Hints:
Blueprint: H1 5-15, H2 19-28, H3 33-50, E1 58-66, E2 69-77, H4 80-83, H5 86-101, H6 107-112, E3 114-115, E4 118-119, H7 120-131, E5 136-144, E6 148-152, E7 159-165, H8 170-183, H9 195-224, H10 229-232, H11 235-243, H12 249-268, H13 272-290, E8 296-297, E9 300-304, H14 305-312, E10 318-325
Antiparallel strand pairs: 1-2, 2-5, 3-4, 6-7, 7-10, 8-9
Helix pairs in contact: 1-2, 2-3, 3-7, 9-12, 9-13
Amino acid sequence: xxxxxxxxxxxxxxxxxxxxxxxxxxxxxxxxxxxxxxxxxxxxxxxxxxxxxxxxxxxxxxxxxxxxxxxxxxxxxxxxxxxxxxxxxxxxxxxxxxxxxxxxxxxxxxxxxxxxxxxxxxxxxxxxxxxxxxxxxxxxxxxxxxxxxxxxxxxxxxxxxxxxxxxxxxxxxxxxxxxxxxxxxxxxxxxxxxxxxxxxxxxxxxxxxxxxxxxxxxxxxxxxxxxxxxxxxxxxxxxxxxxxxxxxxxxxxxxxxxxxxxxxxxxxxxxxxxxxxxxxxxxxxxxxxxxxxxxxxxxxxxxxxxxxxxxxxxxxxxxxxxxxxxxxx
Length: 329
C-alpha cells in the first residue's frame, strides 16, 4: 500500500529511523504504526546480533553535573562518521540526562531506565538498526555531592572528566578537571592508591635499586680489569666482540667470571638502609606522577595541584574526580 509523507515523518520522529526505513516499515505493516515500530526494532536487534563481535571503538563521551549529581557516559559505535551524527549525539545526551535525573549508580541502572516506549538498552539497539553499526554503552562514572565541575576535552566528545571540590570553586575545579584530562592521575592522593599497587611499585623500586647498585659495582670491576663495558654488557655483545676479533674466547670467559663474582659479593653486602632510602625516593616520584594532588600543576610547574588550590583558599582541595576516554593510553 502507498504511505503518506506525513505518516513517514511521524514514524521518523517516533523512532529516529531514516526516511526509507520508515517508508518500508509502514509499507510492510500496511500503515499500522505499532507494527511498523516493531519492524524497525527487530531490524535493530538483528543488526546488534550480527555485529556483536565487532569492535565499537568510536563514539560519544559526555559529562554533565546538576545540583548534587554528576555523571560521565560513553555511547560507543564502530565509526567516526556515526559518532559525529547529530541524532547519535542527541541519544547520548538523552541517556545522560536520564541517568542524572535518576541519580543512577551503575551502568545496569542506566540501561534499565525507561526511554520512549521501552528502555535505554532497547533505544541503543534501535539506533544500531538505524545506523547498521554495533553500539554499546560504556564508561559510566558518577560523583554524588555538591561543587562538581565537568570538562569535555576540546569539546570533541572523546575525553571527559569531572572534579569535585570540598568548597564552591567552579573556576578552580574546572582547571583541575583539565589537569585530570591531560595528566590521567591514578588516584587522588597517596592514601588513595590501592595497597596492591603500592606494594608492587615498592618491590619494583627495591629490585631496580639493587640491580643498579650491582651493575655499578660490576662496571667498576670490569673497567679496573681493563675491559670494554659495552662488549661486557650482554652475552650477545660478548659474542659480537669475539666475532669481530675485539676480544678472545679466554677474555670473554674472564669477563663472565668477573661479573659473576662481583654480582654475588655485592648482593651479599648491599646496605639495606641505603636501598630503602633510594626505593622510597622512587616511590615519592611515583606518587608525584600518579596522585592528582601531588602532580605538578599544568599551568605552573613550580607548584603542585594541592598548592595551587591552597593559593586560592587554604582550605580548598579536591575530594573526588572521574575520567573516561575512548582513546587507548
